[in-house]
Sequence to fold (607 residues):
Amino acid sequence: MKKIKDKIGYLFISPFFLVFFLFNAYPILFTMYLSLTRYRGFGEKQFIGLDNFRLIFSDPNVPVAFRNTMVIWGVNIFFQIFLALLLVMIFSDVKYKVRGLGFFRVIFYLPNLIAAATVALIFMKLLDSDYGVVNQVLFNIGWIDKPIGWLTKPIMAQMTVSGIQTWMWFGNSFILFMASVQAVSKETFEAARIDGAGRLQILLNITIPSIKPILMYVMITGLIGGLQLFDIPFLITDGRGFPEGSLNTMMIYIYNMAFVHNNYGYASALSFALFLLIMSFTVVFTMITNRSEIKEFLCHRKQKKARLNVMKLKKGSAEND
Amino acid sequence: MIKKKPSQNKKKKILVYSMIYILLAFLMVITIIPFWIVIINATRDGMSISTQGITLIPGTSLRENYRILVDNVDIVRGFLNSLKIATSVTILSGYFSALTAYGFHMYQFKGKNFLYGIILVFMMVPSQLAFLGYVQWITRLGLMDTHAALIIPSIASIGTVFFLRAYISASLSKEIIESARMDGASELYIFHRIALPLMAPGVATMSIFTFIGSWNNYLSARIILTSKENETLPMVIASLKALRIWYQNQGAIYLGFAISIVPIIVVFIFASKYLIENISAGAVKG
Fold:
């Protein structure tokens, strides 16, 4: 009876896997195949082995695009997590009861609701160096005497894009962190405080551990999203990645390679390389944060192996008898 | 604990509270001001925006701006297309992810761990990176320039399945399901009538993110949709930049932004109470 019921499990997961294989796994494998060919997006595919991958290492644009992407992501994720943690500390404090959590959660989340494409265009308008509202205001209160090129100076443009990303995402991280901190009962915080734990101790021993899984989630999804940063720099620069190529992210480079230069095979190889990069980052990241769990797991395995060996020995000796 | 003088304590308290609220107010202003400028400028004419700069008072050119905007782009169609795609994606993703997560959680079938392992491996492959292969595949299937090409893949939302599986392992007790089985309910009935409502907070939480993700999606829509009548809202907005009115009539441009942001904000503000209650309920149960 139980066996038949368990077979129904296949029924439950089959729609997912049907679509998964057709629209997720297959395109990935197909992209991998394309990366081994010379292909213009139409016409003949010519198999050329690993030539495209060799090209990646000699292409001077690749390290530049990588550096741009990492700088923009790094600055963004630092401020995003910092702000979210700061807000969590404020709203989970046992001594100071700060009101309006529901209100602020909604407010801080607002920027995340908007299409990145719209955000890009809004900030292009606001930060326009000649007509933009921001420069107008700064000029009127006398902080600047000539327009700031928010989006036209290389380093400045990168920082501006990071800032826009942080503006969009810190509320999202805050909501996720807060939800998991609230899962910890209030009594735990109260008890810790009665036991004389300081604010830093509470942060390190209760708050951070309780949001650790979600912190991981935010970091990894942030990394995956960050390495694929596309919409905002693409629209701000009309797809060209100026000023001086400082906003040419990896994804924009891949897009242009495929759809502007019609070098589909090489673009696929770049996608695949970017995937390997993301995966290695993710693995390293997971290992660093879950060091103790992994150690435990390996320890378990060792114990299990030892136990199996002992069993085998026993069995062997039993057979000998 | 060390006892301090009450008056000193009180002073410190006021100071800390005011610092906290100043910080919160500052963040709030930074968060809201771009929206405010967009909404106000949507009602002003291009001339006064260029010459008078920022103001907090609405203008009177809303109707005129709208006329100029719809003369240039079909924003209504873009809006409806986006709504259609995002709604379908959210429903499909929520239902099938719950179904899959429940299937993995409740049943012990052969190859279960292997199949879940595949999911976990592919979770690390961002679908955007397969878009070149996806475009070729979609072309061969004849789904290029259709909304279906953006909707169907949501049946297999890996991240949502992953989240919901973790969610139900914490919030769904197997005893409830067992007792329903004792009463002779069928497995699908149990899923729809008992498990799904219990998973609802988790599904709702993920649905917000799914909806927003789909609503915000620009890259794949831009690649897959080629004809004007299929364009989504972000594509319509992005096309504003190439128009002559970008500099000439800023009021109309801002109105375009406002049309794309105001409805979703209104919906969110009305739904947020329910949504945040759900998130909190889910967290407490967890």
Observations:
- The mean pLDDT of chain A is 85.
- Strands of chain A lie at 37-38, 46-47.
- The first strand of chain A starts at residue 37 and ends at 38.
- Chain A touches chain B through 92 residues (CB under 8 Å).
